[in-house]
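help with these tokens:
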Amino acid sequence: MAVVVTVAKGYDLGYVWKNQAYKEGAEKAIGGYYISAAQAGEPPGRWWGPGAEALGFAAGQVVERGPYDAVYQQRDPVTGEKLGRARGSYLKFTDHLAQLRAAEPHATAERLIELEREAAKAARQPAAYTDVTVSFSKSISVLHASIRETRAARGWPATSAPKPTGRGGRSGFRRSCTRPTGRPLNTCRRGPG
């Protein structure tokens, strides 16, 4: 499988701060992103997109705790004004338990424990956010890294895709008889298509 997308409800607004110990200019590990994050902590989040701009954040601005908490508590981070509609509200554990006990006033101690379990299962909490994670398989990550490294090692520009000729042909691309650097090749072959 090439891409895995997971979607989960989130309840702990403080989770983003738990692994964030990134220091500007920290030494990067040879292992790259994953090892660096494990050793030095995750880099800070950044505000991005039209919603962030509507709330007065600049694109790429570092996320700070105060404004973050305000946004997720549905308050404008500048004025404190209420944003959007209130999150859904559900019966609490104690309310469920009271209803179950009222329906069975002569329940035994063992049955009361069962009722508590039922009340715990029935209690719901509205999600504070939705966490969407997109994970590419290792083979795609390795391929991307190898292409980037090959381009850098050979001095090729970052984008050197062949251009369509518009002259039909099986692939629609011109024959490539030069390297992306402009030096001639020993053989002439059809470009990708």
Summary: The radius of gyration is 28 Å. Confidence is low (pLDDT under 50) at residues 160-193. The CA atoms of residues 101 and 154 lie 75 Å apart.
